[in-house]
Every structure is written in C-alpha cells, then in structure tokens.
Amino acid sequence: MRKKIKKTGLLISFLILFLSSATWLLASGNLLIKNATILTVTGGVIPRGDVLVINGLIEQVGQNLTAPADVRIIDAAGKYLMPGIIDTHTHIALSGTNEGTDAVTPEVNMAEVINADDTSILTALSGGVTMVHTMHGSANVIGGTNVVLKLKWGQPSEQLVVKEAYPTLKFALGENVKQSNWPLLPGRPQRYPATRLGANALIRSELIKAKDYMAAWDRYEQLKKSENPPADLLPPRKDLRLETLAGLLRGQLIARCHAYVATEMIEFLNLSKEFGFKIGAFEHAWEAYKIADELKAAGVGISVFADSWAYKMEAAEGIAYNAAYCTKKGILVSINSDSGERIRRLFNEAGKTVKYGLTQDEALRLITINAAKQLGVDHLVGSIEAGKQADLALFSRHPMSAYTRCEMTIIEGEVYFDREALLKERAAASAKKGGLS
Amino acid sequence: MNKHLKKISPAFSRPVILVFLFMVMVIPLASSGRAGSQAVKPAYALVNCRIFPVAQPVIKKGTIVVRDGLIEAVGPTASIQIPDDAEIIEASGLTAYPGLISAHTNLFFETKEQAQPATPEDYLAAYSQPAEPKEFPWLQIIEKLKPKKQTVEAYHRTGVTTVVVAPNEGIFQGQSVVLNLNGDQINEMVLLQPWALNINFTTERGVYPSSPMGTLAFLRQKFYDTQHYSLHLQKYLQSPLFLKRPVYDPFLEALLPFVIDKKPIVFECHNLEEIKRALKLIKEFQLNAVLSGCNEAWRVSEDLKSAANIPLLVTLDFRPPTSSHYAQEGQTAKEKAEKEIYPANASHLFQEKINFSLTSFGLNESNFIKNLRLAIQVGLPADQALRSLTIEPARTLGLEKQLGSLEPGKIANLILTRGDLFDEKAQVVKVMVDGTLFTYEEKGQ
C-alpha cells in the first residue's frame, strides 16, 4: 500500500515537473488536430476528421482542413477526439469542503476558496477532464454556493472560474445531514436536524426567514424613497446567510440537492414549488428511477454515480440501471466522480452505462453535453462544434472502451496534458539523475 | 500637574512641593540602573566606526553621539565634535547599523503547560467538551507578555532591537504592541500600544467557522455588523428620542476603531490565495490594512502592484504552505522549494519594485538570521535587505520619525557588528536600545 502511494506520488511529481516546465506549453490557443475519429456528441461521428482551433475557439470541424502558418498540427490518426469531460459534482481545487458546524451555511462561497495548486487538477486532466462543478460538501441541509472551474493548471485561481455557468447553491438531505453515520460523543449534543422530517422543516423555516428578510428590506427601501423618510430610519441588518437564500428565492441561484431516496426528492420538489425556486439537479439520486415521471415533469436532472451503490443504508435501493433508465425516460442525466481520484476515469464510469442499456453515443453525452446543460454552459462547451470553446480530449481508443486511455487534454486550444511528452520527459529526467530519486 | 498644585493650600505648599520635586527628580535616576546592562549615561560617543545610516550614504569612519536615549549627531569623524561629558566608546573595526525591526513576532508569551490526555477515557472526555470560540478582538497582547532577558539577548545577537508582538490565536486575534528590546520591563519597552488588530484566515475547531470559506463569511458578517452597529449608535446619539439604543456588543465595540475609524488591521496571509482574499476584503470594506506572512507574495505580484498602498510584512519563513503544489509533490520537492524557490520571494518583489518589510514571523532567532542571509544569497541586494528591516517597517508602523535610520533626533536604537551584518561570520558585539548599551562577548575569536 505504502509503495503504491509512493509510486503515485512520484508520478504526480513528474507530472508537475513536466507541466511546470512550460517549454511545450505553447500558449497560443491555435491548433489543428488531424485525422482523428471525431466524436462530436451533437453532430455524429466524423471518421478521419480534423478540428481547427483559432484563439481557443473551434474554427472548423471537417475533413482535409488546412491550418494557417505557425499553427501547431497534431496528427491524431487512429485516435478518438471527444469534447473535454465535464464533472458535475466534485470537491477538488478547493481549500475546504464543509462548513460543518451549522446545518445552515448558505453564506459560504466555494468560489472564495479555490486552490489552483491542488494536484487533483493534474489527476483530472490526465483523464480528459476539462471542467468541474466543484461544490460545498453534503454535511449541511443548506451548504454553500458552488463554483464551476476550467482546469487550467498553472493559471491563477480567478482565471479558472467559468463566469457564464449557473450560480448554484448546495442543499443536502438524508443520512449525511442527519449525521446518522457519525459516532455520538458523550457530552456533545446531537445536531438538529436528526431526521428527514427535521431537514425538510429546517429548509422551510429558513426560506420563510429569507422572505421576511426580503420584506424588511423592501419596507426600508420604500420608506427611504418616500417624501419624508423618518429621521430614525435604520436599514435592517445585512445578513449574509439570508442574502444568499433571498438570491435563491429571486431566481438568481439554482439549487443542487444531494439526495438519495425517492421520498426526500419528492419533498424537495414540493418545497421548490411552494417557494418558487429552481432546482438544477439532484446529486447521487439513487432512487431517481422510482420517480422518473415526477422528475421529468418537473424538468429536473440528476447527477449520479454509474454503479457502486449500497455503501450505506440510504443507497441500498440504488440500481446500476439508474442512469440508463432515467436517460431513456427523458431525464437529463450526468455521471459525476465526487472524488479527486475517480475523476481521472469518468469515461470508464460513463462507459459502464452501455452495459445497462445506453448506446456509446448516449453514454458519452453523460459526461459532456448533458453535464454542460446542467451547468448552463452548453452554448460554450460539451460538444465539438464550430464556435464552441476548444476543450478537447484525445483518446487512444473509443473513450467508452475499457481499453482506452487519455492521450491529450486541451482547454481553449492549449495543451494541458500530453501523455507522450510526459513519458519522454520522465524518461529524460530519470536518465539524467541515473534513476528515480 | 500645575493645576493640581494650585489646589494645595498656601500654608503647606512650599515644603510639599519641594519634597515632591525631589522625588520626581531623584527617583528615576535611582531606578535607572539595570542589572546585566550598563546604566543609562547622559551621553555616549561611538567613535571610529563604519556607519550605515540607511537614510544617507555609508560613512567609512564616523562618530555617533547619543544623549538621553536619542541620537544627537551622526557623521564622519572629522565633522563631529565629541561633547565633553560623553563616555567614549572606541568602535574601530566595527560597523554601526540602525537596530533591526521585526514587525511581526510572537515573543514573550506566557506559556501554560496543557495536560495531554493520557488514557482513551481522558481523550474522549477532552474531545467531548463543547468547543469554545477563540475570538478576542478586544485582547491587548501586552497584558499577556512576560519579557525575558534571554530572549532579548538572543534577538540582540541577530541585530533586532524593535519588535511587533502580535497575538496568535483565533481569527480576530487581538491587538499588537510595538516594543523596544531595551530590557525586561514591559511598560518601558512600549513604543506603540496598541498598534494593529491582527486577523488570521484560520478556522475555529468544533465551532463556527470551521472552514476557510466559513471564515471568510464570518469576517464579512462581522465587518457588516460593525458598520450597522456604528450607524445605529450614530443615529441614536444624534436623536435618542424614539430610537431604541443598540444592544451593547463587546465584539463589535472592539472592531469599531479598525472598521470605522480605520486604524490598522494586519491580515496574516499564509499562502497566495489568502493574499488575494485579504486584498478583496480590504477593497470591499475600505480598510487600512497591512499584509503579513506573504511568503508566496511573488506569485501574486500583479495583484500586489495594483494595491501598491498596502504595506507588506514579508516573513523569512521559507516553508511552502500545505496548499502549495510544492508541498504536495513529495518531500524532496518540498525541501528543494524551501531551499531554492521560496527564499527568492523577496528578491522577486524587489525586482517588481514592490515595497516590503522583512520579518521573523514564524521563525526563531537563529532561523531568522540564517534565512535572511539565504534571501540575500539568492538575489536580494543587501542594502535593500537592510532597508526592509529598518526604514520600511518604521514607515509601516508610522514610526519613521523615531526609528529606522541613524539620524539626529531619532531613538538611539543601533547595533555594532564585527563584519558585515549579513555575512555568515558577522557578530553583533554591541547593541544600544533607547540609549541603553548592551555588550556581548564575541564567540570563537
């Protein structure tokens, strides 16, 4: 085990050494990728196709394309080019996950604690991932606001943020927020809520508070504008917790709700109708297959694991057919990693759904265009189309094959991962030092 | 005092005044003798030394006259008249510098031994205790300090004569003090009390906020609350009729001078992201702030350039923060970064024309001087290093009229070294703080 860790550590350090050496990182955003099997996702498959990238955008997709002078040409004969993979639920590149001391913490914002130095970014790049929805954890009924990042390793944190993506607020239900899998320590009180009923009631009472808060500010603004505002007029206290919830009620934020069982998802759908807020997707949603019609009617998507269910009581009725079945039912489904390690093999995870009834093409959508739609960036990324940002992943075989591996990862026309160059650099470093040090 | 005397009835006034004057004049003289150092003499003349006045060019052979704890004259030997009453200190072969200032330390804390849980039951009992927040915006760290002569001597030997002592617990840590290392009597050491409120982007344990993003929300909420509290107080004081008074809040009361009256706030920034977070808060709440720590400052030089008015107290602690990718690459890479990459922070800042002070924050005295030399080895010009430990921190503290250079009128804080201060073999042999002379044995002569 220790050896394994050491090996991974070495690999990562070489990856970093290599990526930071920057000699190969042509900061141009111009590329011509030739002769690849292009999996466009939205426009079918182009055999022996070319993609021309100019200034980080896909200029042309077709065959026998030519590049202007000075544009780097990548010969991808025999390889498969797909849109960069998008992970809709992860916690990488952050310096915190949960503000676990309170069940309600919408005032915290993950965009403020981005850590662009997190080496999980490299791990993700090595698996063709170019974009992540990196989130507050599931310890709280109402967590924090999340952020969408592009994995531009080496760039300052603010350059990673995808401003066009939906602003989202994390909710969580079930065992994590009940803390039912935590040891109860003598002398320490159990945190409210300890039941699903409590979680539901807590959300309702917080949203009512937010409504009161909005009304108080409205009253204040009106009085301030009136002809003779009272001399003692004092604005209400600015409450960051309620400000965020007011944002949700005004439609400026979209809920992303961690939920496993059917009943709690139905309850959350009811809350969204009662208070008129939008739900982006249910996270994990193991029992979504039981309420596919309701989800379809509400237009709410799901972001799920491919398999690996039953790891706790509330996941007991999860089924590996969930993603495939819900896709067939017309629900917008994405596959997520929720992990800094599984993130490098999300294509394998998506590939598993082929066994449960999806076509390769449908499976591919789970980690590309569907994910982009869930994050509100499908006009920018998620497929290989002229005009979209050139976030691309090159694979040795079809990405849904069990034998494939990622060869190159490109964001906005810039190569952030190149397996061949990495191996060469590693061999050179090894030879120079006379072995690994 | 005069007002006071007028009230005394004429019959008693003369003898009382005489006794009083006698006490006023004699007692300080009697108590000025300090153990372990020479008593304050009215005047000293340090002669025949090389002088780095900092504010002016180097004087190859000069004299410094000190009277009553202040510098009376500095200049080349020929130009300075040595007063008759001055005790002459022969300093040929020695070099004089202004005393160094470390504008962020955690010196002199009274440490209490905490019993470690021995048995699993003890551990469980300790762990089960409800956690208490460690927020002390009102804390005056001066009240917690017990200066020790050994520490003073250890710092003198590195050339440091002035320190900022800052609290080090919690997010709102409390208020720092500026001390002259002239002995071990805390009140005599004070130059500025309080100086600044220290804020650290750390987290609480077991209570809110327990995460970096929670800490940011907590800071913002407190700043907003202070603004609201101040507004409410203002309105209430203007027209107390028909407005209920604000509920007294000691936390916000402590923040008022800093958030509203813009006294200095020091943000401890332990990595590049914390620098950016601090800059954002400073802009949002228009704070009068100083950044400390900042050993990754070179990585955000552009951000710092666009916030040029914010002083930097850059630590010579070269350990990569755990968030840094240098610290995630394994032990070898981490050590390499500590030896080669982080030491170049100051020289990068210098090249980018960003002003900064250097501090010993997070370091003991021997690592401080070792790392200072390393920073110079990897590119920081020695004269810039000297400025960063003298006039720059003096400016940041608002004490540039009293400290930071050898000029007439300034406080007599100076050091005499054998060899160049930043040379490995250099030794500090004499230190003067507030005119009190300390002489140290030379090692290995």
Topology of helices and strands:
The complex is a heterodimer of chains A (437) and B (445).
Chain A: H1 2-21, E1 31-39, E2 45-54, E3 57-62, E4 72-75, E5 80-83, E6 85-90, H2 120-125, E7 129-134, E8 142-145, E9 147-150, H3 157-160, E10 168-172, H4 175-178, H5 196-225, H6 240-249, E11 254-259, H7 262-275, E12 279-284, H8 292-298, E13 301-304, H9 322-328, E14 333-335, H10 346-355, H11 360-365, H12 369-375, E15 392-395, E16 406-411, E17 414-418, H13 419-433
Parallel strand pairs in A: 1-4, 1-5, 6-7, 10-11, 11-12, 12-13, 13-14
Antiparallel strand pairs in A: 1-2, 2-3, 5-15, 7-9, 8-10, 15-16, 16-17
Helix pairs in contact in A: 1-13, 5-6, 5-7
Chain B: H1 2-6, H2 10-31, E1 43-51, E2 59-67, E3 70-76, E4 87-90, E5 95-98, E6 100-105, H3 120-128, H4 149-156, E7 160-165, E8 172-175, E9 177-180, H5 186-189, E10 190-192, E11 197-200, H6 212-238, H7 250-259, E12 265-269, H8 272-285, E13 289-293, H9 301-305, E14 312-315, H10 325-328, H11 331-341, H12 345-351, E15 357-359, H13 365-377, H14 382-388, H15 391-396, E16 414-418, E17 427-433, E18 436-439
Parallel strand pairs in B: 1-4, 1-5, 6-7, 11-12, 12-13, 13-14, 14-15
Antiparallel strand pairs in B: 1-2, 2-3, 5-16, 7-9, 8-11, 9-10, 16-17, 17-18
Helix pairs in contact in B: 6-7
Helical content band of chain B: 25-40%
Instruction: Kindly identify the CATH topology of the largest domain in chain A.
Output: TIM Barrel
The largest sheet of chain B, given as strand count, sense and whether it forms a barrel, is:
8 strands, mixed
Helix content of chain A: 25-40%
* Count of extended strands of chain A: 17
SSE class of chain A: alpha/beta
**Category by helix and strand content of chain B:** alpha/beta
Do you know the CATH architecture of the largest domain in chain B? Answer: Alpha-Beta Barrel
Specify the number of helices of chain B. 15
Q: What profile does the largest beta sheet of chain A have? A: 8 strands, mixed
Overall number of domains of chain B: 2
What coarse outline of chain A follows from CA principal-axis ratios? Answer: globular
**Strand count of chain B:** 18
Percent strand of chain A: 15-25%
Tell me the fraction of residues in β-strands of chain B, as a range. 15-25%
- Give the CATH superfamily of the largest domain in chain A: Metal-dependent hydrolases
Highest-level CATH class of the largest domain in chain B: Alpha Beta
What's the multimeric state?
heterodimer
CATH architecture of the largest domain in chain A: Alpha-Beta Barrel
CATH secondary-structure class of the largest domain in chain A: Alpha Beta
- Find the CATH superfamily of the largest domain in chain B: Metal-dependent hydrolases
